[in-house]
Amino acid sequence: MLQECLALVAGVCLNQNAEARVLASTIWNGAVIRIGEVTIESVVRTDGSGVFPDRRRMSRYCFDGGCIYYHVFCDTRDARYICRYTYNEAEDGFSRKLEIVAPDLSAMTGALRGLRIASPRGGRLFPLAGLADRSPNEGAPWCRPRNRRSCQPGDIASP
Predict the structure, then answer these.
(1) What is each CA distance from 132 to 3, 45, 61, 109, 113, in whole angstroms?
(2) Which CATH number applies to 2-136?
């Protein structure tokens, strides 16, 4: 399904006119993408990406035979509408992050309708609009497991 993207930039599938700047360093890899009035910052890897996301407290979205865990927080700040996404797959210990900034809710809704994200392990595209559960908490849930397995849904170990 990845062949349906005109361009795949830092995990964001683009099929519309866009400007993208790819940024890579030893502590941060990602891109800043501009589509009209909407700006997307995609963080693929960073030292602060939350090595152990607590999937027991994240929402789950399944599409096209695959699932991702995610956290979304949206807010209005400085007359702009901002949504922050954190997402990953069960097999991936790291999370990817997106921050989308739009001038208003209408522009945000339009941007979400057309965007898809690639699964961190590749092979699937998830419509961003499908990640519909919004959290009242700004920060994504993290845990400090005794072992890597204890941050998975269904585990009974406490965070």
Answers:
(1) 25, 24, 9, 11, 11
(2) 2.60.120
